[in-house]
Specification:
Shape of chain B: globular
Order of helices and strands of chain B: EEEHEHEHEHHHHHEHEH
Strand content of chain A: 15-25%
Number of helices of chain A: 7
Distance between the termini of chain A: 20 Å
Shape of chain A: globular
Oligomer: heterodimer
Helix content of chain A: 25-40%
Distance between the termini of chain B: 23 Å
Largest interface: A-B, 35 and 35 residues
Structural class of chain B: alpha/beta
Helix content of chain B: 25-40%
Chain lengths: 249, 287
């Protein structure tokens, strides 16, 4: 199997790993959008195996690391939500360049799923698959500050939408994220789920909240304890999860 | 920092595919001693909280070429089909070192690793003469008489609090040194995840001592760093030196009592990177 590591994007700062189809080409490709920080490390092994399996089934696959994380450049202090959204656009463009005639599906994990929804309307994507997506601002914030209780100040507008609450900025600064990131995070608007080709994989004890949004028929449950809320657990390796993900794409 | 270095991904495919990221200084002469950072546990070359990236950036700025390696079977490198165990680790090391030697003319290298990466480093250093330095993060240490003395001394000091056990039952336990929220070592989930999956192969005390002594005899310089999470076998500064029978002239020992095994606290991480950089600079710069 051939794996092509490279740097891409405007500053050539984003690290990508392209896995071309090794099996009979299907004319399809998959963009894998990871989560960030510890979650990206924990899910790396699963996503690597997904890429290998899909490649053997004839898919071109592109994985990448967000700027300021993993093998990409930039200091964590310099990243912003907009930069990460641009990373997704750049990765998509790179996949189109490397696999020009194929239809593209997106597999996004956790925080990556939330970020992908901010840009997905600008991309021609055939289908989307989310693995334990984080679709609320409160839970996104938890990634940065860990499992302790989140301090949320209500904006007082009476909305139940989690994207209208204001998180405490200290959590960002403690993990090395700068003010730009915090500002961008606060400006995140409501994320809407409208794509009919959306599928969601939820592992045991994980509730992405999509059922409340009327997408219960799109949810596939997989019996595996990812325990995302515990920050420093080891790398996830779940063959059943890998086969389910690959089966959905 | 990145503008003073070239970071490039590499695959070595001569026998079994092996993936690593290379950090190369852009200006000045490259030091003839290279740094190879071994992956730990099932993690890839990035390390916990990007620790390996931070270390590599810091050392490249000093003129060292650094390789962060996904050892076979970890990260993006597939399992070797031609070797297993220590033979696979040696094959990985030989291939990366040969790449660095042929591209940069390096003659020696420093091996660096956390946890199982530290264990691997010690085993490789024992068998390869090109290794001139080792940096261990929570590597092996003999459990000495002094360990037990210290262990019970701490408990004796807190004897009064033992008597208040009833009160403690209803109170929140204070954070122990090295213990952090979400730390695997102290989580309930540890029991479930840490059974049979550990990559660490604990050696007998005699083996550990023999390995250290053999490596020190070859004039390999060692920096051994222990965190508070290593409390099961290491609990005071100087324990490793006390536990070895031979000369420990080339051994620098550091105890980050407040730090967790994976250095999840950014301040501890910064302090660790600074300490490693200073030691490498002091011992290996211009050599």
């Amino acid at each position: 199997m051939i794996l092509e590591p490279f740097y891409f994007g405007q500053n050539k700062s984003c690290f990508g790993h392209f896995t071309p189809a090794s099996g009979l080409a299907q004319g399809k490709s998959v963009l894998i959008i990871p989560s960030i920080f510890g979650e990206a490390i924990r899910s790396h092994r699963v996503l690597r195996e997904v890429a290998r399996t899909l490649s053997s089934r004839g898919f071109d696959v592109l994985r990448f690391d967000f700027d300021g994380d993993g093998n990409s450049w930039s200091d964590t202090n310099d990243v912003s939500v907009q930069l990460w959204v641009n990373n997704i656009k750049d990765a998509y463009a790179e996949l189109v360049k490397r696999s020009p005639d194929s239809s593209i599906s997106v597999l996004a994990t956790r925080f990556g799923a939330g970020l992908s929804l901010l840009t997905i309307n600008e991309l021609a994507v055939e289908s989307m698959l989310f693995w334990d997506p984080i679709l609320s601002k409160n839970e996104m914030y938890n990634i940065f500050v860990g499992p302790e209780p989140v301090i949320i100040e209500s904006t007082g507008n009476g909305s139940n939408n989690p994207f209208t609450s204001t998180p405490d900025l200290r959590g960002f600064l403690e993990v090395g994220l700068g003010k730009d990131f915090a500002d961008g995070f606060l400006k995140l608007d409501e994320i809407t789920l409208s794509n009919n080709d959306l599928q969601i994989i939820e592992t045991t004890d994980t509730d992405s909240g999509v059922q409340k949004l009327g997408f219960s028929s799109n949810v596939i449950k997989v019996e595996h304890h990812c325990d995302w809320q515990i920050k420093d657990l080891p790398v996830i390796f779940a063959p059943k999860l890998i086969s389910t993900i690959c089966g959905c794409l | 920092m990145e503008n003073r270095q070239i970071v490039s991904p590499h695959w070595i495919t001569s026998t079994s595919p092996l993936f690593f990221i290379q950090h190369q200084p852009t200006a000045g002469d490259v030091n003839k001693t290279a740094i190879i950072i071994l992956s730990s546990g099932f993690l890839n070359n990035i390390g916990p909280y990007r620790l390996n990236v931070d270390i590599a950036n810091s050392l490249t700025a000093q003129g060292f070429v650094v390789a962060r390696v996904d050892q076979s079977g970890k990260g993006d490198s597939p399992k070797r089909l031609d070797a297993v165990g220590i033979d696979a680790k040696l094959a990985d090391y030989d291939e990366v070192f040969e790449h660095l030697r042929s591209n940069f003319g390096v003659t020696r290298c420093i091996l660096m690793g956390l946890c199982s990466g530290a264990d691997d480093g010690l085993e490789i250093a024992k068998l390869r003469d090109t290794v001139s330095g080792l940096v261990f993060l929570d590597g092996f240490s003999p459990v000495t008489f002094w360990y037990y003395l210290y262990h019970y001394y701490i408990r004796f000091r807190h004897f009064c609090s033992w008597r208040q056990w009833k009160k403690r039952l209803v109170e929140k336990k204070p954070e122990r040194s090295g213990e952090q929220k979400g730390d695997i070592k102290f989580s309930d989930a540890n029991k479930q995840y840490n059974t049979g999956l550990s990559l660490r192969r604990w050696q007998s005390e005699e083996n550990v001592k023999a390995m250290y002594e053999s490596v020190l005899k070859k004039d390999v310089k060692i920096m051994a760093v222990f965190s508070g999470s290593a409390g099961d076998y290491y609990n005071h500064q100087g324990q490793l030196k006390k536990g070895l029978n031979s000369s420990t002239v080339g051994l620098q020992e550091l105890f980050f009592e407040k730090a967790a095994h994976i250095y999840s606290n950014p301040a501890h991480r910064t302090e660790l990177v600074r300490s490693i950089s200073s030691w490498v600079q002091l011992v290996f710069l211009n050599k």
